Amino acid sequence: MGSLPETAVIEVIAGGPLLTIQDGGRLTARRYGVPVGGAMDRFALAAANRLVGNSLNAPALELTAGGIQLRFGARMTIALTGADVQAHLDGTPLAPWQSVLVPAGSTLSLHGRRGMWGGRNYLAVAGELAAEWAIGSASTCLAGGFGGYEGRALRSGDRIPVRPRLGTVVEGVRWWPADRRPSYRAQPCLRVLPGPQRSVLPEAWEKLLSATFQIDQAASRQGYRLSGALLPARDLSLPSFGVVPGAIQLPPDGQPILLMADAQTTGGYPVIAVVIGADLPLAAQLLPGDQLSFTETDLTTAQAALAQQSAWLTTGPEDDEADWLLSQAGAIG
Amino acid sequence: MSGWIDLMGEAALLVRWPATIAAAGAPLAAMAVLQRDPLPGVIDLVPAIDSLLVCFDPLTTDYERLSARLTELARQPPLAALPAGREFVIPVRYGGEDGPDLVEVAERTGLTPAEVISLHTATEQRVIMIGFAPGYPYLGWLPPLLHLPRRATPRVAVPAGSVAIAAGMTGIYPTTLPGGWHLIGRTTVQLFDPAADPPALLQPGDRVRFVAL
């Protein structure tokens, strides 16, 4: 067992709506106006990497909304996490949240959401995904045009160089139990902490917690416009201040914006609430048209929820194949 | 009058000061203090016009200690710690195709285009913050004669290097971007390079003087 790393490629046959290289993002360059970026669903990224024995925040592929086809130029161990988007490997159904050894020349295809939720998947390769590093990360910064693969989304015909690592991880199935994942579901109710301008806009805060919203067509990695309810808003003419992914901004038109991974580092709209980090994976799985709501939580709960997810990632996957088969049969998990 | 702190999610605290204390440099002074004497768990500091966003890892940070320290910085901004900042000279071609709004700015401020250029170049400006886009510096403050609100209708594409004014500040577009500031000139200085460390030429606190080419 064990083979020297050599360069292979993953060829993009179809890139779907958005296919990019992402990792843990750029956490220390916000003062230079550089967005945090990185995986929208950081839990699913970390789990994919853990399944194949990589470090948690290693570069991987972020696959958006299905419609994607990839061909593996060599034998390699991969893991696909995130939504169930009817993935097939050479025509055979492939369930997400497991590691799998794929033969050279095999093709992975993602068709689209099977159940009621899901928008993003992460594909990690045991070994190294060769990517362009900039400012401490291989994440694709679409706004700045740097990082990842030539600073842009991958498209048909692109060839992503990889250095597969074989033989150092279990080549049988490793799988990630459902009870060690965020509670992914349709119409999630995201937990929020009050934002800095919550007390200036109390009616907007109340309505945010009571209304049901829909992800508008104007949704990207930068943020989601939320429709379905207008919040009472005022033009506060605030000087710009630093903001974070998860912040819910309220522009004067009353249509809130949920900032996501690629959000600008500063903004002048009031921030009435902030989605807690542990619920950002749920937000990351939303697509235009999906519904969501918000509920208030407190700092202790937010910290505990994040610590819980961190503990799950530390525990890592299971490698008992019998349990896996049972879980696939719906008996457990 | 003292500042205050607010949570921005479980991984950031926003420190804000009243306008006068902020204009005296409270955000940059507090940032300097936190860089000189860092607290464990703090990952990034984002200074802005009247605030400093302190980003931290909630799993490794002593939250009580951090919030106590930031409350103290909010209440007693360490203005004496305001760094001198590095000096930069940025050459600008004012007016014409490079600064298509110069004439309008002159009309709206009751000055001649030459007087606008003269005022803009005579004022040493400090980098107050970088935001909006990678490497986009907000410099201030401009003399009151040059204060104008943003344009009513933003442009879809402002050329890279454009030097623009609005809200009492100067901004420089590092790349081609949409923008609502008044374009008075253009520079060839490269403000942002993702391959450089740090990636932005200007840093918060730096002092800039513009010279007319």
Secondary-structure blueprint:
The complex is a heterodimer of chains A (333) and B (213).
Chain A: E1 8-15, E2 18-22, H1 42-51, E3 60-64, E4 68-72, E5 76-82, E6 87-89, E7 92-93, E8 98-102, E9 107-110, E10 120-125, E11 127-129, E12 159-164, E13 189-194, H2 202-210, E14 213-219, E15 223-227, E16 241-242, E17 247-249, E18 257-259, E19 266-267, E20 271-275, H3 280-284, E21 291-296, H4 299-315, H5 321-328
Chain B: E1 4-7, E2 12-16, H1 19-23, H2 26-36, E3 42-47, E4 51-56, H3 63-75, E5 87-94, H4 102-109, H5 113-122, E6 125-130, E7 137-140, E8 155-158, E9 162-166, E10 169-172, E11 177-179, E12 182-186, E13 207-212
Parallel strand pairs in B: 5-13
Antiparallel strand pairs in B: 1-2, 2-4, 3-4, 5-12, 6-7, 6-13, 7-10, 8-11, 9-10, 9-12
Structure characterization notes:
The complex is a heterodimer of chains A (333) and B (213). With 333 residues, chain A is α+β, with helices and mostly antiparallel strands. Chain A folds into 2 domains: 8-176, no CATH class; 189-297, Cyclophilin, CATH 2.40.100.10. In chain A, 15% of the residues lie in helices and 29% in strands. Chain A is built from 5 helices and 21 strands. A 7-stranded antiparallel beta sheet of chain A has the order 7-6-9-4-1-12-11, with no helix packed on it. Chain A has a 7-stranded mixed β-barrel with strand order 13-20-17-18-15-14-21. A 5-stranded antiparallel beta sheet of chain A has the order 2-3-10-5-8, covered by helices on one side. Chain A starts with 7 loop residues before the first strand and ends in a 5-residue tail after the last helix. Chain B is α+β, with helices and mostly antiparallel strands and 213 residues long. Chain B folds into 2 domains: 4-81, Gyrase A, domain 2; 87-212, Cyclophilin-like (Cyclophilin). Chain B has 5 helices and 13 strands. Chain B has helices at 19-23, 26-36, 63-75, 102-109, 113-122; strands spanning 4-7, 12-16, 42-47, 51-56, 87-94, 125-130, 137-140, 155-158, 162-166, 169-172, 177-179, 182-186, 207-212. In chain B, strands 5-12-9-10-7-6-13 form a 7-stranded mixed beta barrel. A 4-stranded antiparallel beta sheet of chain B has the order 1-2-4-3, with helices on one face. The termini of chain B are far apart. The model of chain B has no long low-confidence stretch (mean pLDDT 95). The chains are: A alpha+beta (333), B alpha+beta (213). Chain A binds chain B through residues 27-35, 134-135, 141, 143-147, 193-196, 239-244, 246-247, 264-266, 271, 274-277, 299, 302-303, 306-307, 310, and chain B through 6-12, 14, 16, 43-53, 55, 58-59, 63, 129-136, 138, 175, 192, 194-195, 197-200, 203-204.
